[in-house]
Design brief:
Layout (H helix, E strand, L loop, with lengths): L2 E6 L2 E6 L3 E2 L11 E4 H13 L4 E5 L17 E6 L6 H12 L5 E6 L6 H7 L3 E2 L7 H8 L16 H13 L14 H10 L22
Helix pairs in contact: 5-6
Length: 218
């Protein structure tokens, strides 16, 4: 069986691919298949009725919303990257995950390059057919490259501004003034609390929100 890279528990792993990609003019092989939107519309009911796992390949110019009714029955949706500069598949992946609630595999096919790894994962891709010969170790490193993110996406990670706000609360001991009868943390106590929650030297805080040496790293 062909192999592909899957993203599992924050790491890339090499796995066998049980699916066969079938062109519109190709005879239908036995087993699980990936077919075009056009062929799925013509033969999908029959294939699903045979108990197969079916995936659909969506080209960049096609709309994933056309599959909305059938998504609960599909095992995967393969989104095609015709070339490196064409990012329409990123939008399609987010639509599948966030708007249509698709929980199956979202696979990147076509001109899939290592440089895109982090952005693909953030948009909801969890399987990849690399076109540049890269392997799982390289994809794991690329997927973990950045500690912080700056906007919400399909991977559910907290943006940096949320982490920063939490760190400020930990550092200062409260959002503003302490509640009545509650002592504000000393800078040393707040520093220890922030470190205990994983906020390290990369986090800096405005002087107005910290204590002594608040502009310096924790």
């Amino acid at each position: 069986m062909p192999t592909l890279i899957r993203w599992r528990e924050a790491r890339a792993v090499l796995e066998e691919d049980p699916f066969t990609a079938v062109g519109d003019a190709d005879p239908m092989p036995p087993g699980d298949v990936i077919i075009s939107v056009k062929r799925f519309q013509a033969e999908g009911e029959q294939l699903l009725g045979e108990g197969r796992a079916v995936g659909v390949r969506v080209e960049a110019e096609e709309s994933v919303e056309a599959l909305a009714y059938d998504l609960p029955r599909l095992s995967l949706v393969a989104l095609a990257f015709p070339k490196f500069k064409d990012g329409r598949a990123f939008s399609a992946a987010r639509i599948l995950r966030e708007r249509l609630g698709f929980g199956g595999e979202v696979r990147a096919v076509g001109d899939v390059l290592l440089e895109q790894a982090k952005f693909m994962i953030r948009c909801g891709f969890d399987a990849f057919e690399p076109a540049d010969g890269t392997g799982p170790a390289e994809w794991t490193a690329a997927g973990r490259r950045f500690r912080h993110v700056y906007q919400r996406a399909s991977d559910g990670r907290e943006p940096a501004f949320v982490e920063r706000a939490r760190a400020i609360v930990l550092y200062t001991g409260d959002h503003a003034e302490p509640a009545r009868g509650r002592r504000r943390k000393t800078p040393e106590e707040a520093r220890e609390g922030a470190l205990a929650h994983g906020f390290g030297p990369a986090h800096r805080f405005p002087m107005a929100l910290g204590g002594a040496d608040a502009q310096g790293p924790i």
